[in-house]
Structures are given as C-alpha cells and as structure tokens.
Amino acid sequence: xxxxxxxxxxxxxxxxxxxxxxxxxxxxxxxxxxxxxxxxxxxxxxxxxxxxxxxxxxxxxxxxxxxxxxxxxxxxxxxxxxxxxxxxxxxxxxxxxxxxxxxxxxxxxxxxxxxxxxxxxxxxxxxxxxxxxxxxxxxxxxxxxxxxxxxxxxxxxxxxxxxxxxxxxxxxxxxxxxxxxxxxxxxxx
Length: 189
What we know:
The protein is mainly beta and 189 residues long. It has helices spanning 34-44, 113-120, and strands spanning 2-9, 12-13, 25-27, 57-63, 66-75, 82-85, 88-91, 93-102, 105-110, 124-125, 132-142, 151-157, 163-168, 174-183. A five-stranded antiparallel sheet has the order 4-9-1-11-10, covered by helices on one side. Strand 13 (163-168) and strand 14 form a beta hairpin. The longest helix is centred in the first third of the chain and has 11 residues, at 34-44. The protein is elongated.
C-alpha cells in the first residue's frame, strides 16, 4: 500500500499549545492534535465540514530548523483599557514571548492521489492565520517508507495510552490524547 505525501514549507509557524492561553512565554507546540488535523482537513476539503472525524489525512510529520522568539503585545478580552492610579497610568496590556518554528516542513499523507492533488493546490496555516505554509512537493511513498521522514508526529490514542493534548473543538470539547513519536532528527540543520 502507498501514501501520497504533500510536503508544505514556510518561513515560520506557530502551533498554540492548549495550556498557553495566558503564559508570558510560549513555545510552539511541536505536533498537531486531532482537532488541528481535522481543521486542516476541513480547510482542504470543505465538503467534509458537516462530518465528524478525520477522513482523508492518514498521517503527518512536522520538522523545523529551530525556534525564534518574537514579542507580541496583548490585552485582555474586553479590549484595551487604562486607568490612572497614584499618578501612574496602568493598562491591561501585556507582552508575551512567543517561540515560533523557523522553516517548518509539514508532510501530510493521503491514501489516494486525487486527495493529495487537491491538497497540493492549497496553502495552509499552522493554527495562526499569518503563518502560511505552501505546497512544495507531492511524492508517492510506500507506507513503511513514510517513517523515514524526520520529524514529530502525535499518534492519536486514548487516555490509557497517551497524554492529554487538549479538547476537541469539533466534538463537544471531548478530551484528546496522543503518544508523541520522534522519527530521526526533527530539528534540521
């Protein structure tokens, strides 16, 4: 059996960890959760919007060249506010340091060439709209050869066999679990 693998590349990417809502320093998550993969699939194949679960993406792999820290200015959900207390102005603004992946590669594996060809015509983002990655190659792999691609992959499991990776926004916020697999050296030179 074969996989048809689309390789996406970009200058940088950030995958928001589910625990990082208000952390002052955040590293990009190094794997995709089930709901992220399902969201990518629904973007690529909008005809699946009304269906639950991952239907076409069989596996994935992600690697990158390093992390770069960028500062981002934030404020609370209610919008910008300020007040003067004891002669000093105070705001609800904050600065957080975000560790983004440099030059990420994302490999998506499909069982048929038609799905891979559809995916190859589109761009993706890794959880933030400005972090675009672009299709670079479409290659046919034997299923066993897919494991030769260096990178991180979360194998989707249950609570007994994995660790909690968040709540699924496509399935009533049920808890998601996975086992992180590292293939080769996921941080490229």
